[in-house]
Amino acid sequence: MSTHTLDKAAVAQKAATDRASSAGCDTAAPKPPRRGGRPGDGLSVLRTVVWVLMALVVGLPLAALVFQGVQPAARQVFGDPAVAVAAINSVASALGSALLATLAGAVLAVLLERCNIPSRNVLRWLVLLPFLIPPFIGAMSWMALLGANGPVNKALQGLGIDAKLSIFGGWGVVFLLAVHSYPMAYLVIAATLRRIPGNLEEAARISGAGTSQVLGTVLLPLLRPGLLAAFVLTLVANLSDFGIPALIGLPERYTTLTTLVYRYLASSTTSNPLPAVAAIGLLLLVLAVLVVLAQRKLPADTQLGSGPVGQRLSLGGVRIPLTVLLWVSTIIICLVPLFALASQALLPAPGVPLTWENLSMENIVRVATSAGAISGIENSLRLAGGAAVCCTVLGLGIALLLTRGKHRSNTALDVSATLPQALPGLVIAVGWLLIAPMLGIFNTPWVILGAYVMAFLALVVQSVRAPLASVSSTLEEAARSSGASPLRALLDVTTRLAAPAALTGGVVVLLTAVRELTISILLVAPGTQTLGVSIFNLQQAGDYGGASALALLVAMAGILGLSATAALANRRANN
After folding, report:
1. Is the pLDDT of residue 300 over 70?
2. Quick one: which of 77, 64, 55, 71 has its CA closest to 432?
3. Domains of the chain as residue ranges with CATH
């Protein structure tokens, strides 16, 4: 703000005061505006609009789910032995996979972030591959690898070993849930590891501690908040997964709550499955909320800070063996299943020998030009694009109110925006399934769009909130000193600063929603089949080549899209 501008403002204010005095009026000095907003300043209007949308998108589905789930007709479903078995399987698979994922994430975080492992950058990208691929497509990859006519069993037969390896069943569900959730655990634990001050490690080394003692007495105890957060996130995510239990568990009659709900909705013998579905959804909602509350009740470690990162830990003589083991396990878990999926997509039929002469693009061309696939692609792009736009606009408004306004409703707004991220996708789908008839959008694409917005809104809020919290409000205050209203200053200054982060969050929503299955499979209606549902239906119909071809295209697009988005976000953060 220049001195000339300030002088003009002072002269204008003095002239206005003199004119008011000459007219016999008393002019009071203007009060400084409150940051929370007041009636008539525009911020109250923005806050009202945001709250109305949040009540529709988040509050109404959850209220309908709770109301329907506590009805006597809904509670009767808990007398069904199948529900008890599915609940036990869900909890067991979620707990087992969360423990495995947290353990794998901790080992990878320590090795790749703090140890002298060569080629760390390449390994970081490779170990995150399962995170970039939808879980149900990952399940299809492992089915192609360990199928009866898959390359592993054929290789065993060639060696004279009469053993039929299979990925189907409960142990396969636990293993694949862990494979697709350990990248999330790795990211959370690695972020915690970077916050451990290096002076604590230096003090341990000065006292004569070696690498193993530094790990055991300094790093691992201080990693407890990250380990707990990673365990909770993976537990909630795995509790609600549908694709892996449906493809891997159902062939061996291993049912979970998500697959049981799908069975209720797809059954032609049940006239009104909504009470049973609501009861199961309410059970998952309670489990998710209890897990989150338990995490919040545990004490956080106050030793973490923003000090300098400690030195690389030397692995000594085990460096080379650990590096080889890490590369071999990464290739087997992250790359080999993708190669098996690609071979199944390029071969004319399962069991055909993998030779150059047998490779063909026939399956890819056939499925990419089929009416069902084209309709699924169009619906997915339309719904994911609409969800990205809605989440970007609404998420930006929420982040602005949370970071640039002090209001008594901010805590409730924060909880409302972030709670759906901790909820299973099945809970969100059931909530929208219940309110769709009263809104007049039952069996329309709008119900899927609403569920997408509820599920992925937190991605944009988190993308915008962190950058805005670190930006000074000086420019905004300067605009208000020049006469701009609080809303005008917020839109002209702060919104422009937050726009790149909001767009990045919107792209993440787009790439995530276009590959989504759990919500789509429960809310699908005639004419609303999405890309994930198309692949699932092809697999269930026995068209393994077509399903693999379409899944391969989705996997490649997801890997390229999310990798490019992460690279741009990192470049923007570094600049």
Report:
1. no
2. 64
3. 65-302+318-357 (1.10.3720.10), 361-575 (1.10.3720.10)
